[in-house]
């Protein structure tokens, strides 16, 4: 008696079930990777905005103390805080030492902060 080679119905169903489970795991992994990539993209964009805002605030000859804020594209919100830390006499003139922080917020809790320090002439009184 010659037996035909091939798969039984049960073997085929088990193979399809295993392949389906592997495919489901692969799809979950891809979805998670895409979600992580989107978060990273938002963070990178926020960092670029924070750098730009901080550079602009640091370039001002007489930093304005206080908090300034605004909104950008794609729902990004920025905030600049400038505080004079010290007032130092240099060569008979008063020079301020300032702390400048740039915050950018997005979505539900996304946040980056960059901080810089600089000397600048004290604001005229």
Name some characteristics of this structure.
4 strands, 125 residues, four-stranded antiparallel sheet, alpha+beta, Pantoate--beta-alanine Ligase, Chain: A,domain 2, 37% strand
| CATH fold-type name | Pantoate--beta-alanine Ligase, Chain: A,domain 2
The SSE string, one letter per element, is HEEEE
- Helical stretch tally: 1
Give the overall pLDDT as a whole number.
Answer: 87
Q: Gyration radius, to the nearest Å?
A: 29 Å
**First CA to last CA: what distance?**
109 Å
CATH top level is: Alpha Beta
Q: What structural class results from the helix and strand content?
A: alpha+beta
Based on DSSP secondary structure assignment, what is the total number of beta strands? 4
- How would you sum up the major sheet? 4 strands, antiparallel
Largest sheet strand order: 1-2-3-4
Name the CATH superfamily assignment.
GSPII I/J protein-like
Compute the number of structural domains: 1
Question: What's the gist of this structure?
Answer:
The protein has 125 residues and is of the alpha+beta class. 41% of the residues lie in helices and 37% in strands.
What does this protein look like?
This protein is α+β, with helices and mostly antiparallel strands and 125 residues long. It has a single domain, classed as Pantoate--beta-alanine Ligase, Chain: A,domain 2, CATH 3.30.1300. The protein has one helix and four strands; from the N terminus they run H-E-E-E-E. Strands 1-2-3-4 form a four-stranded antiparallel sheet. A hairpin with a 5-residue loop joins strand 1 and strand 2. The N and C termini lie far apart (109 Å). The mean pLDDT is 87.
